[in-house]
Amino acid sequence: MLEDLTTAAPSPTAWPAAYPQGYAVVDVETTGLARDDRIISAAVYRLDARGEVEDHWYTVVNPERDPGPVWIHGLTSDVLEGAPLFADIAGEFAARLEGRVLVAHNAVFDWQMIAREYARARSEAPVKQRLCTIALSKELKLPLPNHKLESLAAHFGVVQRRAHHALDDARVLAEAFRPSLRAAAAGGVRLPLHECRPLTEWTDRPRVGQQAGHGDRRPAGWRPSRKRPACPYLNPGRYEPGKRLKQGMRVAFSGDTSVERDLLEDRATEAGLHVAGSLSRLTSLLVTNDPDSGTSKVLKARQYGTPVVDEAAFGQLLGDVEPADRTDG
């Protein structure tokens, strides 16, 4: 579905020259959150350089497997049975993304799901940068009670009609992104843009009737364990909120993450951080999306006073890690 939309809202005359020339506001609904889960619907609102809507597009996608939490997204197997496969819509989806910054709420998750689908289709999504509206709301210091999409929408007076429907979620996000972008431009705020890297590996669950090899009892999504190289930098101490991470800092993870844990750990290691399997008084930072979970790591973090950030905030911090001192390591 494609529809041209116009808006009469005024745009500021002064605009940062370094800002992108166009955006693709994206939402995808999926069968779940794991690396072997699939996209079942996708929506894109294309916006111009100042956040004005150009058009929008939506499609359902046959995931070739169980649709997952139907009670959340409402898409049943019967509805999806006649839908196109991702490979069938990959070209049109790519045309919506081409030359634009991908904008999403918790953009790391949407990007990973999209990149994984393109990897399965033996292709790559034409996206070089993404912008997370959670990160932007933090940059703007918006007085939100939490970082849910409905809270961002309520702040800007945007009415949500069908939560967890890709098209409506994308519309809501586009309407909330426009004033956010204008506020950033007016305040000279640097947009939290991050590189989008295509995936080179993924896993899929065996199809119905497909059997694992003889004696193979490994669970779906299994990957061989990898011993990470020792961090070459000394631990500079704890992370201080509002400042940058520094190479050598000791980082621990707790609970589920929207991006696969090993990919997050790989990124942290590549940035020069020490990925720790446990939490101690030496831990610089704990990354968790559920600080009230009561896990042993969360409890120890409270006991030791270890700083805690969520996955989205950690993703932003990884984009600007301070180099270690020359005397470190």
Your description of this structure?
The protein is of the alpha/beta class. 29% of the residues lie in helices and 17% in strands. The chain contains 10 helices and 11 strands. The chain has helices at residues 70-73, 77-81, 86-97, 107-120, 133-139, 149-155, 166-186, 261-270, 296-304, 311-318, and strands at residues 2-4, 22-30, 39-48, 53-60, 101-104, 129-132, 193-195, 250-254, 274-276, 285-288, 308-309. It has a 7-stranded mixed beta sheet, with helices on both faces. Helix 5 packs parallel to helix 7 and helix 6 crosses helix 7. The protein is globular.
Helix content: 25-40%
Instruction: Output the helix-strand order.
Output: EEEEHHHEHEHHHEEHEEHEH
Average pLDDT = 85
Strand order of the largest sheet: 1-4-3-2-5-6-7
Distance between the first and last residues' Cα: 57 Å
Low-pLDDT regions: 1-12, 206-225
- Give the strand tally: 11
Structural class: alpha/beta
So what's the overall shape?
globular
Distinct helical segment count: 10
The major sheet is characterized as: 7 strands, mixed
